[in-house]
Amino acid sequence: MRTHLRRRLTIGTAIIASVLVGSAACGTPSEPTSPARGTSSGATGGASGGSTGVATGPVKRLWKAAWRSGGEGPPDDAKDVVISPDGLTSYVVGSGPVIAYATASGQQRWTADDPAFTQGLVSGAVSADGSLVFVTGPTTKADTGENYTTVALDASSGKPLWRKSYTGPGAGADTPAAIVAAGDLVVVNGTSAGSGTGVDFATVAYDAKTGTQKWVARYDGAAHGDEGWFPSGIHSLAANQAGSMVYVTGGSQGAGGADYATVAYEAATGTRKWVATYSDPSKANDVSAAVAVSPDGVTVVTTGASESKTTKTDSATVAYNAATGKQAWVKRYNGPASQNEGTGAIAFAPDGQSVFVTGTSEGATQGKEDFITIAYGTTDGTQRWAVRWDGKNGGDDNAADLATGPDGTTLVVTGKTVPAPMQDEYATVGYDPATGKVLWTATFASLSANESRASEAHAVAISKDGTIVVTGVSGVGYGTVAYRATK
């Protein structure tokens, strides 16, 4: 079942009948020539320039931008997007360079293509003062194999300021998954080969300004098997707003199968404060894919996929007391087909009263997948709503990420929809956070005559003024799109 869970969580991450409000369709644009090797196409607004998109409901596309290497090999794939604290700059991270865009216009401010990026980057973060951008990814070295590599960039220019690597004690690969800023530190986690302990969680903290390694914390579960069955990706690490605690989650080998394992560390020292595990009563495989901390720092929530004897694989969301690790509540979601569900991204409402999870769920027709987005009360786990979104023609719809707007009126989920075979498109959906009502939808797909149409969004972020930035792979390169809800 390991392969099965890995697949389900991948499409659920970092994942209703569609009720559409109003209507406004964008036209089909002309097709430009492909940009030169290693270049970006200019940002354009509306629906112009080499792609097609349809917006339904009160939302407007502000701009789109592309980057592609132009070489042979797999498409250039953007994995993460983070926005500066002032909201003015968006940073896109992926298999090519780091790219900084003006959030309002999409104007490219700089690209940073460092030798350390040759294996691709997986996650990004911005310092609290907005002066530094941090990125992490694997780098292969002849003597040590695959390592974590973390780079700090000057946010105004993209100039690399420091570069650090981490190699674990074992002979296998060290694979980073996520990075966060925590006060004066930047923290990276992932999976790492241990010495006689199989694969462990490994969390590394650096001084944000100098790159000096402050501490390393490794977690080997009670069964001393493989930890991080699913190297959970950009959502597997979180820090509280004070920057005093960091939390790691993933899958850990238990007595009968994998269990959720969530570990809390003191950010200043790396001291482990608690470990909490979760296993379905059937003792099958349970793999946590995402962790988040409430705005007040009181509650930690994890979500992922959990196997059951009666309902196949469910979404399971578990809340803990952030100070002690005591379990506060568990809620499971089983879709109409009682087949396969998995949630892999979490966001809290700005007031902390609700927590939202999203992912992918099989619909009433077995094998056909929908977005599933669920709202729970933070304190007691009361399910406030659960909304399924099924795209055009009833094809597969896989949610990847979600974000909440700073004013509490916006909840956005992004991922992909497949309206016809081999015609994958970005799908971005806006919800009313209070009710789950679908307010608008927007799709985006590459249509260049020289490339595949396949497009898949991987990450979304919302700026302080409400600009929604989505990124992923579109055709053969990065595709980044910005939207604004119009009411």
Defining key terms:
487 residues, mainly beta, Methylamine Dehydrogenase, Chain H, 5-stranded antiparallel beta sheet, 34 strands, 2% helix, globular, PQQ_rpt_dom, signal, Pyrrolo-quinoline quinone repeat domain-containing protein
Structure description:
The protein has 487 residues and is mostly beta strands. The protein has a single domain (2-485), classed as Methylamine Dehydrogenase, Chain H, CATH 2.130.10. Helix content is 2%, strand content 53%. It contains one helix and 34 strands. A hairpin with a 6-residue loop joins strand 30 and strand 31. The longest helix is centred in the first third of the chain and has 11 residues, at 2-12. It is globular. The termini are far apart. Pfam families: PQQ_2. InterPro entries: PQQ_rpt_dom (IPR002372), Quinoprotein_ADH-like_sf (IPR011047), WD40/YVTN_repeat-like_dom_sf (IPR015943). Residues 33-42 have a biased composition (Low complexity). Residues 43-52 have a biased composition (Gly residues).
For the record, the count of structural domains works out to 1
Low-confidence stretches: 1-37, 46-50
The CATH topology annotation reads as Methylamine Dehydrogenase, Chain H
Overall 3D shape: globular
At the first level of CATH, what is the class? Mainly Beta
| Rounded mean pLDDT score | 86
Question: Main β-sheet, in a few words?
Answer: 5 strands, antiparallel
Radius of gyration: 21 Å
- What's the total helix number? 1
Fraction in helix: under 10%
The name of the CATH architecture is: 7 Propeller
E-strand count: 34
N-to-C CA distance = 45 Å
Tell me the strand percentage band: over 45%
CATH homologous superfamily identity: YVTN repeat-like/Quinoprotein amine dehydrogenase
Structural class: mainly beta
Strand order of the largest sheet: 1-3-34-33-32
Region (Disordered): 26-56
Domain Pyrrolo-quinoline quinone repeat: 60-201, 204-347
Keywords: Signal
Pfam families: PQQ_2
